[in-house]
């Protein structure tokens, strides 16, 4: 049996080879997977210059996605929107303000227009906007204004399910505090500054725009002593995205070329178990009617009996393989 790198295809193969699922269940699950995989996913990244939008895209979807694009060199500091595409995934890397008032106004207009664009059925072109802000920046005003004055009005009443706010560079924000190398986690102090910035932002957005959005603190390139930088809290960020996306788009995140570096998905604040949340999300998506992963005794799907448990096992195995968490 040949393995597939596409999540839903590998899962479909595993389902068809399973000896514990009956033929009817197999057919139901295959049909469901087939419905869910025939989609496209458009994610737009926006935010001021230098906050790490491109770094975030690379952290999530690997260097290849961005590297494939011809315009990489020219795009990084230009006014052009870069568009990266692979399979059903389309990523829009939107340039930030340059300080030139006229150009900036034009950029905002373009961004607003892209976000309001819909197809004939009224389905938006852009499924999700991820606004990246720099937690290390003392002044977050320009990013904040971008959210409140450009993005939220353009998203209209769907802003809640189409907007994720990320506070990047938590490593740089926590200057003075150290990574706890003995425990291999950030020391509690490392999180305090970005988290309080996140609550402040959340409060301001709620107050000004009625937006109930909790920014996710993360680092696309957590710089570590004597080691190459690697992401921190990436799983939390991607979880937030998957949780908000409409049902028919969720699986596409897994079918996208997710970063396949071994350590990319490992380090998180562990406030909740993001991997478990991800497994639950996927299980509920594929096994219609399931809730919270239908866990029994902690086992994914086990509440639904033998077949649920088998699907739970297959989902778990594939999630862990995709995110290198075996
Ligand atoms: N310390 C730190 N630096 C980062 C992080 N993410 C990105 N950077 C750096 O920030 C700079 C700007 O990143 P880039 O992705 O080009 O920003 P963009 O203009 O928003 O696309 C680069 O030098 C990155 O290496 C992070 O999590 N921590
Ligand atoms: Mg960039």
Q: What can you tell me about this protein's structure?
A:
This protein is 48% helix and 14% strand. The chain has 326 residues and is of the alpha/beta class. It has 2 domains: 1-38 and 272-321, no CATH class; 39-271, Rossmann fold (3-Layer(aba) Sandwich). The strands form 3 sheets. It has a 6-stranded mixed beta sheet with strand order 2-3-1-4-5-8, with helices on both faces. The mean pLDDT is 87. It binds guanosine-5'-diphosphate and magnesium ion. Residues 53-54, 76, 93 line the site of magnesium ion.
Structural class: alpha/beta
The CATH homologous superfamily of the largest domain is termed P-loop containing nucleotide triphosphate hydrolases
Counting DSSP E segments of at least 2 residues, the number of strands comes to 10
Intertermini distance: 21 Å
Total number of helical segments? 13
Strand neighbour order, sheet with most strands? 2-3-1-4-5-8
| C-alpha Rg (nearest Å) | 20 Å
Q: Give unreliable regions as ranges.
A: none
Strand content: 5-15%
- Outline: globular
**What is the residue-mean pLDDT, rounded to a whole number?**
87
CATH architecture of the largest domain: 3-Layer(aba) Sandwich
Instruction: Briefly note the CATH topology name of the largest domain.
Output: Rossmann fold
User: What is the number of domains?
Assistant: 2
CATH class annotation of the largest domain: Alpha Beta
Main beta sheet: 6 strands, mixed
- The helical percent reads 40-55%
- Heteromolecules bound: guanosine-5'-diphosphate, magnesium ion
Protein name: G domain-containing protein
């Amino acid at each position: 049996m040949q393995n597939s790198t596409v999540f839903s295809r590998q899962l479909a193969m595993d389902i068809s080879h399973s000896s514990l699922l009956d033929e009817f269940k197999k057919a139901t699950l295959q049909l469901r997977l087939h419905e869910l995989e025939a989609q496209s996913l458009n994610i737009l990244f926006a935010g001021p210059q230098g906050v790490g939008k491109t770094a975030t895209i690379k952290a999530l979807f690997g260097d290849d996605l961005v590297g494939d694009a011809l315009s990489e060199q020219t795009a990084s500091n230009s006014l052009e929107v870069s568009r990266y595409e692979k399979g059903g995934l389309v990523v829009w890397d939107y340039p930030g303000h340059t300080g030139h008032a006229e150009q900036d106004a034009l950029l905002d207009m373009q961004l607003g227009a892209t976000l309001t664009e819909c197809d004939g059925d009224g389905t938006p072109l852009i499924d999700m906007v991820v606004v990246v802000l720099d937690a290390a920046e003392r002044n977050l005003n320009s990013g904040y204004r971008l959210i409140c004055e450009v993005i939220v009005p353009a998203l209209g009443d769907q802003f809640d399910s189409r907007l994720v706010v990320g506070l990047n560079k938590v490593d740089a924000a926590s200057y003075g505090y150290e990574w706890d190398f003995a425990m291999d986690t950030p020391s509690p102090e490392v999180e305090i500054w970005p988290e309080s910035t996140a609550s402040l932002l959340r409060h301001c957005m709620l107050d000004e725009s009625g937006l109930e959005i909790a920014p996710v603190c993360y680092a696309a390139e957590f710089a570590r002593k004597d080691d190459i930088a690697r992401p921190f809290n990436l799983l939390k960020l991607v979880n937030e995205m998957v949780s908000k996306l409409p049902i028919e788009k969720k699986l596409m995140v897994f079918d996208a070329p997710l970063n396949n570096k071994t350590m990319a998905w490992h380090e998180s604040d562990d406030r909740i178990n993001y991997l478990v949340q991800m497994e639950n999300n996927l299980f509920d998506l594929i096994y219609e009617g399931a809730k919270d992963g239908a866990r029994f005794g902690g086992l994914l799907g086990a509440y639904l009996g033998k077949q649920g448990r088998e699907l739970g096992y297959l989902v778990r195995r594939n999630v862990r393989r995709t995110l290198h968490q075996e």
